[in-house]
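Reopening: Small RNA 2'-O-methyltransferase still failing for me.
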Amino acid sequence: MFLTVTTTRQPASDLGFLLHKHPGRVQSFELSAGQAHVFYPETSDTRCTAALMLEVDPVALGRGKSGSGDGFTLGQYVNDRPYAASSLLSVALKEVFRTALTGRCKSRPELAASAIPLDIRVPACPGGADLVRRLFEPLGWTVEATELPLDPQFPRWGDSRYVDLRLTGELRLADALNHVYVLLPVLDNAKHYWVSEDEIDKLVRAGGDWLAGHPEKELITRRYLAHRRALTAAALTRLAEVDDSEPEEIDNALAEPVVLEAPDRPVPLAEQRRGTIMAVLRSLRARSVGDFGCGEGALVRDLLAEKSVERIVAADVSARALQVAARKLRLERRSETERSRLELLQSSLTYRDDRLAGLDAAVLMEVVEHVDPPRLEALERTVFEFAAPRAVIVTTPNREYNVRFESLPAGELRHRDHRFEWTRAEFRAWADRVASSYGYGVRMLPVGSEDPEVGPATQLALFTKGGAA
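Support: Ran it again with your exact input. Result attached.
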């Protein structure tokens, strides 16, 4: 199996930094299916090509040491697995270029974050020309798919199901590699190993920022998960969580909330909310802070301005919201020191993510009310059990205060995406239960002034680990 990656972005030899593989050396890697080799057929300042070649052990494969049966191996010893791109090459891509797939490059961070001209070729790709175009063209690729004959010596036999695939475009290298990593086994419509629930996590991690909006997402998901109905349904549900809302449809992703401010308040409620949160963080002396459900990054902007905060982890389930945040924060204009303080992560708070762990404080600003009640327990475990910061700040609307908004019809929630809104007693009961379950103390605070009858417009719970807040 063979795959090449070429760039003409000068100096082109910087491709070695992005792939974390030196252009002057041939490197080999032992894999369960055989041996992978990385080398550079051409290297210059104007053009650089990296090649990944996978030598598959067909005997081991045929004996069933890996694989899902004869339907995949096409027989015990005579099959196409050593030659045609498949999940075997996809696994090799992940193992050999693991760091490049994450988009990390300490020596060239600005290059890793930039779209560069790329040319990817897979000489024997399954699936057919039509399917290849349906999968890759929506991702911004220009696709050339030359159909390969069954046998050049016997043209009457017609074409095979394989194409000589060439993809050209300007993309981040990490995005390009993730496209290929996910779609090769989809094109082959099979995997050489047993597909379990872990594959859902792999799919969402690799495709979360592009698959949810792909016109063929159902086909991709079904094939990637080997047509297992339960896994496919679960994956499509998670992808819907990743991208079911435009950033502007989530009130925490707006410069101002849908209900802008309470009557007679000179300062918008959104600003009061952020100001209260920042005051609490200063009192905690938090040096590492997570903004979980960061939206367009309004709070992140305040955190970046707070010099005592050394590390900021901004996470959101929506890839588009993160793109809006990066644009509005003008990260490309900020200094390297400022950019190094911030991590933008796509992550769902209803699934464990170890990248969110180890923080002094985490903020869930107007987030919990967007979660379906049956999923709240999963969010609680993700934040309080697995991430387990020293302190957690949660803000949410006070439903009792809704009667003070003249523009809000009686009985309606403040935003169309809210699944619920709590009264003060309901929020207190939830906070007490969570604190008791996960070893936190909790203290309730108002945001802004309190109405003597219905309380504050926004309510805040401060959880501190290991005792009373």
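Residues 65-74, 244-265 have pLDDT under 50 and may be disordered. If you still see a failure, please send the error message rather than a screenshot.
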